């Protein structure tokens, strides 16, 4: 009678009811809940963990958005949703879903402004460097510049709005009628008890499937051997429920990787170090890719190196710049960052051949001076050459979160394989197909939180009409 966590039988009882049930208390779920509540719906958020954290809190917390008043404050007056969509499509080589790309690009700016005006979130725009693929400064963050702070502010807004966020409440079953309408969800409590919650609309905001090694091996075998630096609770529940309901699944091979996770510390080292002039070398002291191509695809490049590791090499200027990032400060405290006065010392602390490392740095100086071109295609002329003292951090490649999922329409309704909307089921963030296309190289910085907040905003807006 049940399949993939879906029961076609009527619920044996209803313990409580809400107009809208949201599964997942990350940026997507909380944005959806705040918006649905503002639209007049009675909302409950269900969170599997004892304390909401998830992918949002593990992220940098940076959200790309065009044409916002926050950009205007730093003098960016010519960004548009069309320009942003063009950047997204350029990064994915045109393979992103065009409709979802347009939808996200047009929605995210108004969503961030609404969160500021209605929910008290403060946004700043980072203007000290451009992330790979972005043609304008459009990366928004809360003042603390961390994902944990973004989540904390959203949780505070939910509390102010009297939205209950029920923790330790994993959902293990959806009840669907003959028309695929979700009528209730079943919660499995830590003490073994179950609760059944009736609903008029359900929003899946429980991220993707990065935490399920079997699903990763099936859909993204190229990263199956890498570390997983996402939330362990991302087990693909939305994917499996959707599949059982006949939903259309798209771009399951798409994901965000990262080629700069401090090893073995497990601390994210911002790719801004590379954009500021840093390089990556392997255990042989040689560069192996164009570091300005993007940090997502760099995960695969790093994992192909001996031992699946690389060294980020940079200098004191970049080190001082990086100290502005909380994650980097944490890496310094953890002892992940090493320093050397010269090339010989750098070779010792990285256990790389001094001759090869010296040749690599000489080549970089030549590229920077415009004497020769980098055969890997990177332009070094815009940044100063690396100079002693040098800094280094050992890194590996990792899977951060999946980017494929349930295909949705312009109201964030889940679509079935015939293109029709499942009556009252909505999805966003990692549960939905994103805008990165089917390949790791299609991920443009910030795409994860982009679709979490934009599609969560849409889901909350339109699900309220089903009351």
Give a quick set of tags describing it.
467 residues, ten-stranded mixed sheet, seven-stranded mixed sheet, 15 helices, elongated, FAD/NAD-bd_sf, FAD-dependent oxidoreductase, FAD, flavoprotein
Structural commentary:
The chain is α/β, with parallel strands linked by helices and 467 residues long. The protein has 15 helices and 22 strands. The strands form four sheets. Strands 1, 2, 3, 4, 8, 9, 10, 11, 21 and 22 form a ten-stranded mixed beta sheet that branches. Strands 12, 14, 15, 16, 17, 18 and 19 form a seven-stranded mixed beta sheet that branches. A three-stranded antiparallel beta sheet has the order 5-7-6. A hairpin with a 5-residue loop joins strand 10 and strand 11 (194-204). Helix 4 (81-91) crosses helix 5 (98-119). 54% of the residues are buried. The mean pLDDT is 95. InterPro entries: FAD-dep_OxRdtase_2_FAD-bd, FAD-oxidoreductase_2, FAD/NAD-bd_sf, Succ_DH/fumarate_Rdtase_cat_sf. GO terms for molecular function: oxidoreductase activity. It comes from Roseibium aggregatum.
> What is the general shape?
elongated
Taking pLDDT < 50 over at least 5 consecutive residues as the criterion, the unreliable ranges are none
Helix content: 25-40%
Indicate the structural class: alpha/beta
Give a short account of the largest sheet: 10 strands, mixed
Rounded average pLDDT: 95
Radius of gyration over C-alpha positions, nearest whole angstrom: 23 Å
Distance between the termini: 28 Å
Q: List the total number of helices.
A: 15
């Amino acid at each position: 009678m049940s399949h993939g966590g879906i029961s076609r039988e009527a619920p044996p009882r209803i313990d409580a009811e809400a107009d809208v049930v949201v599964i997942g208390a990350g940026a997507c779920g909380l944005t959806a809940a705040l918006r649905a509540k503002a639209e007049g719906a009675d909302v409950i958020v269900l969170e599997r963990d004892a304390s909401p954290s998830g992918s949002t809190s593990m992220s940098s917390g940076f959200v790309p958005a065009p044409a916002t008043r926050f950009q205007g404050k730093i003098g960016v007056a010519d960004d548009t949703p069309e320009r942003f969509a063009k950047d997204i499509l350029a990064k994915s080589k045109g393979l992103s879903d065009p409709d979802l790309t347009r939808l996200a690009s047009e929605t995210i700016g108004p969503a961030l402004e609404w969160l500021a005006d209605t929910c008290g979130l403060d946004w700043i725009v980072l203007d000290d460097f451009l992330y790979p693929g972005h043609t304008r400064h459009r990366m928004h963050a809360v003042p603390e510049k961390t994902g944990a702070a973004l989540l904390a502010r959203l949780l505070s807004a939910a509390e102010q709005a009297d939205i209950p966020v029920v923790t330790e409440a994993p959902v293990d079953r959806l009840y669907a009628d003959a028309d695929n309408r979700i009528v209730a969800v079943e919660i499995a409590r830590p003490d073994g008890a179950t609760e059944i919650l009736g609903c008029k609309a359900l929003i899946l905001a429980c991220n993707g499937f990065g935490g399920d090694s079997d699903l990763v091996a099936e859909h993204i075998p190229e990263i199956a051997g890498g570390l997983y630096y996402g939330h362990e609770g991302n087990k693909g529940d939305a994917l499996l429920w959707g599949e059982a309901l006949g939903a259309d699944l798209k771009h399951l091979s798409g994901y965000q990787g990262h080629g700069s996770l401090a090893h073995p510390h497990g601390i994210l080292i911002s790719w801004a170090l590379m954009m500021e002039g840093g390089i990556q070398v392997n255990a042989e002291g040689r560069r192996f890719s164009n570091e300005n191509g993007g940090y997502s695809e760099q995960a695969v490049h790093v994992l192909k190196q001996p031992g699946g590791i690389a060294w980020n090499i940079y200098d004191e200027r970049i080190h001082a710049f990086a100290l502005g990032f909380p994650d980097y400060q944490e890496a310094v405290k953890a002892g992940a960052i090493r320093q050397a006065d010269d090339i010989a010392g750098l070779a010792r602390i990285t256990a790389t051949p001094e001759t090869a490392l010296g040749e690599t740095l000489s080549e970089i100086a030549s590229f920077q001076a415009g004497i020769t071109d980098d055969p890997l295609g990177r332009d070094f002329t815009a940044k100063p050459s690396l100079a002693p003292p040098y800094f280094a951090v050992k890194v590996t490649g990792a899977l951060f979160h999946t980017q494929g999922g349930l295909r949705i329409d312009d109201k964030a309704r889940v679509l079935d394989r015939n293109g029709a909307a499942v009556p009252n089921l909505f999805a966003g963030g990692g549960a939905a197909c994103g805008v990165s296309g089917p390949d790791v190289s299609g991920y443009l910085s910030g795409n994860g939180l982009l679709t979490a907040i934009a599609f969560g905003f849409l889901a909350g807006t339109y699900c309220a009409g089903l009351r």
